[in-house]
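hiii so um. not sure if this is the right channel but i have a protein structure encoded as tokens and i wanna go backwards to a sequence. like what aa goes where. can anyone help
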């Protein structure tokens, strides 16, 4: 796309709802910003606030592929609005990865927040980030998530102190996945290599001996100490299984939605996007926040045999009558055929979009949800 896209062209694209035009609009705005990125004006608070509002309003309903392209485009942009970058960093991992890896907008406190709020996949990408700062390293070590520790051990540019290396080598006794990357780490010392030697396999032992010219007597002493310690009851873990913590993805989705809601960018179109991406829990959470419903009310409506209750909730947040049949179809596909009621139930559900205000529909939903 050429930077020659003028303001009139962008305005025309802004009126279109097609994914292709929305993509062209997003990338067109990026190119305009890149063209003026050297100017101080782009970094002014007022301009940043406007850019943040523009990008977030477009990203909220954008398709996955568009968000992925945007994340790649903005990964190295110093002018990118921080709120937008933080939202992209909390998106699906394939979208978040380039931003987490490279964005100069993400500071240490943003990365530490990701370690707390995001999934293990996101945390691993944080640990792999080049030139990772000491505060983030400290947070990873404190959290002690094995898969994240293994990623940190493989990051040769992270700001690891001697004490940090000692702690990682000590952890390698229990976490087998740390051993191989630590044996190659540029900050590994001969003393730590001798300690690591005891816990690694034959191939890594040979590599450590060649790299650090380990003395056979020192090795013998270390092995003898290890045998004595083993008889004292220290057991070794031989592998590492990365399993996401229960509910962590749902919790991260909730924090992402809260960010969009706080920025005034959470709109009904986000419901359709969530369903198209097969994310039923994201749909339910978004619907609850938009309608100010209890999450359990929405969950009961989705699992009921009365699709008209879901219809009331959608009417309350501004979903159009013509869009609801598609929403109901997608929810049923993702939820084992629920809400039930078949074709007759679907016809009955459209009646929820009667000549009533969203407020009345919301009140009717809350009342109806009590009975399911």
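sure thing!! here u go:
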């Amino acid at each position: 796309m050429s930077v020659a896209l003028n303001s009139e062209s962008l305005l025309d694209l802004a009126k279109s709802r097609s994914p292709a035009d929305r993509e062209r609009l997003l990338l067109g705005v990026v190119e305009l910003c890149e063209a003026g990125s050297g100017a101080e004006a782009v970094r002014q608070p007022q301009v940043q606030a406007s850019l943040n509002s523009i990008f977030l309003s477009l990203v909220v309903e954008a398709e996955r592929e568009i968000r992925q392209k945007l994340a790649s485009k903005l990964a190295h942009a110093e002018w990118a609005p921080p709120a937008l970058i933080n939202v992209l960093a909390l998106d699906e991992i394939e979208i978040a990865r380039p931003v987490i890896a490279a964005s100069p907008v993400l500071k240490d406190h943003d990365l530490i927040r990701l370690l707390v709020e995001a999934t293990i996949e996101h945390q691993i990408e944080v640990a792999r980030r080049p030139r990772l700062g000491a505060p983030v390293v400290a947070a990873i070590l404190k959290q002690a998530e094995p898969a994240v520790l293994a990623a940190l051990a493989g990051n040769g540019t992270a700001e690891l102190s001697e004490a940090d290396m000692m702690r990682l080598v000590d952890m390698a006794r229990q976490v087998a996945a740390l051993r191989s990357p630590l044996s190659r780490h540029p900050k590994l010392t001969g003393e730590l290599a001798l300690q690591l030697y005891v816990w690694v396999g034959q191939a890594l032992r040979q590599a450590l001996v060649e790299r650090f010219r380990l003395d056979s007597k020192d090795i013998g002493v270390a092995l003898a100490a290890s045998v004595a310690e083993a008889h004292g009851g220290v057991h070794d873990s031989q592998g590492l299984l990365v399993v996401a913590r229960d509910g962590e993805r749902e919790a991260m989705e909730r924090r992402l939605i809260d960010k969009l809601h706080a920025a005034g960018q959470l709109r009904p179109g986000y419901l359709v996007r969530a369903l198209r991406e097969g994310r039923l829990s994201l749909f339910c959470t978004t619907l609850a926040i938009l309608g100010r419903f209890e999450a359990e009310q929405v969950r009961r409506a989705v699992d009921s045999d009365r699709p008209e209750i879901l219809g009331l909730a959608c009417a309350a947040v501004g979903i159009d009558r013509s869009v609801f049949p598609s929403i109901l179809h997608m929810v049923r596909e993702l939820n084992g055929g629920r809400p039930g009621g078949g074709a007759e139930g679907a016809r009955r559900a459209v009646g929820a979009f009667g000549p009533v205000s969203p407020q009345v529909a919301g009140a009717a939903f809350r009342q109806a949800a009590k009975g399911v």
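oh and Residues 1-5, 230-244 have pLDDT under 50 and may be disordered.
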